[in-house]
Amino acid sequence: MKSSATDCREKHLLTKKDRCHCLANTASLFFYSTCIAITTISCFHFIFYHTNIKYTNNIHDFNQTHALIQPNKEIETCDLFEGQWIRDARGSLYTNYSCKTIPFLKNCFLHGRKDTDFLHWRWKPDKCELPRFDPNTFFSILGGKKMAFIGDSLARNQMESLLCLLSTVEAPKSIEKDAEDRFTTWEFPKHNFTLTAFWSQFLVTATERRVNGTDTGGFHLHLDRVDTKWSEKLPSIDYAVFSDAQWFFRQNYLYESGNLIGCIYCQEPNVTDLGPGLAIGRAFRSAFKAVNNCKKCKKIIIFLRTFSPAHFENGAWNAGGGCNRTQPIQRDDVNKAGPDWEYRKVQEKEVDAARKAGEGRGNEFEVLDVTEMMSMRVDGHPGVHWGNQWMKGYSDCIHWCMPGPVDTWNELLLESIKRRNAISSQK
């Protein structure tokens, strides 16, 4: 039997051992708790910090955007319209799913187009770079302004492209359109920017020819009378982009001062066939004259987008012609001897004359010369992928898929505006 003293010593040792055991447990608990806390904080940091950071798509674009605010930066003056299409893995800023305003007839993927190679080309000017479209830069320059696209369905095509590009940072709001959806206005409220399309397939007054009560598809064109449906809207416009031509290639009769002066493709013995070129030039002349003579207008910046060629192969549009290519052609393969270049020439001639006439009025006239670059893009049309229920079997080789090469027109538009503003700020 143990003595009392021994019993007491054992109790003392047990108590000490228990304390050490407890201390060890406490230390282990603290260690594991600390590890769990650090791990939890790291996870939250990774999830929330990395999710909220917005990276630029590429460093070159980032530098171009911020170069706008660098003092004494030399203004870029290279020719934006002389160049070639080069491969670009990035593709478009938007998709036919992300942009909710793509028109039904230009939504090529919706109507069965499978290839996507046509999205992976960018325009490279010979002596400089064309910056990728930056919606934030666009709004920073044009916030508070109103821009109108005036002309035919290709003018509308460009407006719809711009609408999609800008919608990547703000959803547009439709504020006005007519019953046929030919005159339409969109607003970006956060940026106080308004975008409008004015349908005018000839820019001048036109009435469709009827024979025995039936529409013929041809028109009576009064080349010296501007279409007032768009001209009366000019006082509210800051920027206007004109484009027109395709509707002139039909049996039209031409008038000036109310008198018949000739026709296009009429094949009548007593009427002179003047061809599309003259009519296109006179129509733009009247349109630009209306701009320069507008007494209620403030200063307007005018852009003319030059002729955009069609690419029907193996026949005309109504004779089995189509456009099934999936890649651009090379610059050396473009035929510059055709009539497309005549139409481009007469358009630019009228811009030059209007620019001189507009100097005293404060108006400015610029050119978006897309004729050569779009001559190479035989791959970017809807073709049979346009879902027109009334023209099954026919191809659309005039308009452009969205997204597609038409987005480049708005890259050129933005860069031209940036250059113009840079020059104005140094005067």
Automatic annotation (TrEMBL):
GO MF annotation list: O-acetyltransferase activity
Lineage: Eukaryota, Viridiplantae, Streptophyta, Embryophyta, Tracheophyta
Provenance organism: Perilla frutescens var. hirtella
InterPro entries reported for this sequence: TBL, TBL_C, TBL_N
Trichome birefringence-like N-terminal domain location: 76-129
Location within or outside the cell: Membrane
Gene Ontology cellular-component annotations: Golgi apparatus; membrane
Positions of transmembrane segments: 21-48
Main location: membrane
Protein name: Trichome birefringence-like N-terminal domain-containing protein
Membrane topology of the entry: Single-pass membrane protein
Annotated Pfam families: PC-Esterase (PF13839), PMR5N (PF14416)
Keyword annotations: Membrane, Signal-anchor, Transmembrane, Transmembrane helix
Family: Belongs to the PC-esterase family. TBL subfamily.
Residue intervals of the Trichome birefringence-like C-terminal domain: 130-415
